[in-house]
Design brief:
Helix content: under 10%
Protein name: PQQ-dependent dehydrogenase, methanol/ethanol family
Low-confidence stretches: 1-22
Number of domains: 1
GO molecular function, one term: pyrroloquinoline quinone binding
Number of helices: 6
Active site: 319
CATH class: Mainly Beta
Shape: globular
Cofactor: pyrroloquinoline quinone; Ca(2+)
Number of strands: 40
Largest sheet: 6 strands, mixed
Disulfide bonds: 125-126
């Protein structure tokens, strides 16, 4: 197979020949490996760095360079940003921001402490996490838990403008980062467990004014779809495609929230993101495919108009949220270079699609224990084309309300949650943090009330049976073939975002608190260091003063660590996660710390 630098990444390195696809500052950051200017590393979401001073031959000598306490004891997701001499560090609620001067021993240049009503904590589903800041044009963008989007002066921390994106009284909150494309800030919304109707919104970087909003469900005009031009698996989507898939006006409280990651292709000017689970979790209350929840969406960045959709889990019966990142790369499939999008879904299937047309190229299980469906139908002539083939034994809809369906794999938190994977153009492999967890699931009837939980299911979670006994794996995935190249078993789910580098190593963190480095070709462990708390943050790297650094936030929490983070003990609390991860308390404790590593001087 020909190994080439993906055309998308190459396009980001071109200055005069490339089309103007974003403000100059974002392009400059992507082209400079010394910086870490985006949560996913680049618009393609590859979480790959060209830095190679730390490599597979010397990473075993890596040591702690310095640390920083955030002052918050909850789940720390996302990563800091590094722009020039300044590192920008965020926290979970209350979403504080620190600007650290790397040229002056990490001195705090400024801090921003938002004023938020603590009541928002009560309507945040699965911990008070926040997945990080965005930077563009000397501006830091913070999307708070209460949905207030704030533009801060990157040098002083002064507020430039702010706008409110939702209403916590209705259950609308935020946990996701934002993405700056062209002259717009792209933001999502959380709250699928409260009957929130999901949407993606673009605000002007200049003043925060609303540019466009695209809903996940409902009428065509509110979803920004063209019935004849928006495509699904090669065919026009058709008039009222969403309305026709819901009973009555259930779509108005139908979920499909957008709390995941957004990626962007400058060649097509398309943004890519996923929509979450339909509301309620009781499938009997919402017959139909519930479009367009659980869907990969491709939209024009400037207008929001939809180019194509692909629904991964029609009529979701298991809370397999579809918001995971869509990684863009150019890889060879069946002897032909293809511009692809690769998605590792909560439902346990890894999808490879043509990112221009939405054509489905590969759909295979990335955890062998997945049992709720046998396969995704790939025959284009079948009326089931593109749909997972559900196993009746594990169908909560077929088994009915008030029936406990047992042994479903994966659990609701999926074979992979939001923790982002990485792609290396050197190996053409994707490196994926995964969950190896199953569940029992009992749906029950529930009524909607604004601002109140709208779940309608009781869950319990446990390690996948007849396997290695642990709850996670870290895998290398061949997206062209749909195959695992190697897999490393872990005692707990791997809830940290991965990082691949040109040094032929891949980094990830564990819920016990270990930062690990492994050989990108073989998976051989080369380094480990235990940080003060469990890691659910995303590993990042940068260069400063001629040295390469690797950093990660530790602070146990998130859905997997909600028991520790919120002090919960009932096994069914945390939507079933408390019991499944009860043993975590034997290995780690609450924390909130940034740990930065380097090679010895």
């Amino acid at each position: 197979m020909k190994r080439t630098l993906p055309g998308l990444l190459a396009a980001l390195l071109v200055s005069t020949a490339a089309p103007a696809f974003a403000n100059d500052s974002v392009k400059a950051l992507q082209a400079d490996a010394k910086q870490w200017g985006q949560q996913l590393g680049n618009y393609a979401g590859q979480r790959y760095s060209e830095l190679n001073a730390i490599n597979k031959d010397n990473v075993g000598k890596m040591q702690v360079a310095w640390t920083f306490s955030t002052g918050v004891l909850r789940g720390h997701e996302g990563s800091p940003l590094v722009v020039g001499d300044i590192m920008y560090v965020h926290t979970p609620f209350p979403n504080m921001v620190y600007a650290l001067n790397l040229a002056d021993e990490g001195k705090i240049m400024w801090r921003y402490v938002p004023e938020q009503n603590a009541d928002v904590i009560g309507v945040m589903c699965c911990d008070t996490v926040y997945r990080g800041l965005a930077f563009a044009d000397d501006t830091i963008y913070l999307h708070q838990a209460d949905t207030k989007l704030v533009a801060l002066d990157a040098k002083t921390g002064a507020e430039k403008w702010s706008v409110v994106n939702g209403d916590p009284a209705k259950g609308e909150t935020n946990t996701a980062t934002v993405t700056v494309v062209n002259d717009k800030v792209i933001v999502g919304i959380s709250g699928g467990e409260y009957g929130v109707r999901g949407h993606l919104t673009a605000y002007s970087t200049k003043d925060g004014s609303l540019v466009w909003r695209a809903y996940s469900t409902g009428p065509d005009d509110e979803m920004l779809v063209d019935p004849e031009k928006t495509m699904v698996l090669g065919k026009p989507i058709g008039k009222d495609s969403s309305l026709n898939s819901w009973e009555g006006d259930q779509w108005q409280i139908g979920g499909g929230t957008t709390w995941g990651w957004t990626t962007y292709d400058p060649e097509t000017n398309l943004i890519y993101y996923g929509t979450g689970n339909p509301s309620t979790w009781n499938p009997s209350q919402r017959p139909g495919d519930n479009k367009w929840s659980m869907t990969i969406m491709a939209r024009d960045a400037d207008t929001g108009m939809a180019a194509w959709f692909y629904q991964k889990t029609p009529h979701d019966e298991w809370d397999f949220d579809g918001v995971n990142e869509n990684i863009l790369a150019d890889i060879e499939i069946d002897g032909q270079m293809r511009k692809v999008l690769v998605n590792f879904d909560r439902n346990g299937f890894a999808y490879t699609l043509d990112r221009v047309t939405g054509e489905l190229l590969v759909a295979e299980k990335f955890d062998p224990q997945v049992n709720w469906a046998t396969h995704v139908e790939m025959d284009k002539n079948s009326d089931q084309y593109g749909r997972p083939q559900v196993v009746a034994e594990y169908s909560t809809a077929q088994n009915g309300e008030d029936t406990n369906t047992t042994g479903i794999c994966p659990a609701a938190l999926g074979s992979k949650d939001q923790q982002p994977a990485a792609f290396s153009p050197k190996t053409n492999l994707f490196y994926v943090p995964t969950n190896h967890v199953c569940m029992d699931y009992e749906p029950f009837r529930v009524s909607y009330a604004a601002g109140q939980p709208y779940v309608g299911a009781t869950l319990s979670m446990f390690p996948a049976p007849n396997s290695h006994g642990g709850m996670g794996n870290f895998i290398a995935w061949d997206a062209a073939k749909g195959e695992i190249k190697w897999s490393l078993p872990e005692q707990f789910s791997v809830w940290s975002g991965a990082l691949a580098t040109a040094g032929d190593i891949v980094f990830y963190g564990t819920l016990e608190g270990y930062l690990k480095a492994v050989d990108s070709e073989t998976g051989k462990e080369l380094y480990r260091f235990k940080t003060p708390s469990g890691i659910i943050g995303n590993v990042f790297t940068y260069e400063h003063g001629g040295k390469q650094y690797v950093g990660v936030l530790s602070g146990i929490g998130g859905w997997a660590g909600i028991g520790l983070a919120a002090g919960l003990t009932n096994p069914n609390d945390g939507l079933g996660a408390v019991g499944g991860y009860a043993a975590l308390s034997d290995y780690t404790a609450l924390g909130g710390q940034l740990t930065v590593f380097k090679l010895p001087d």
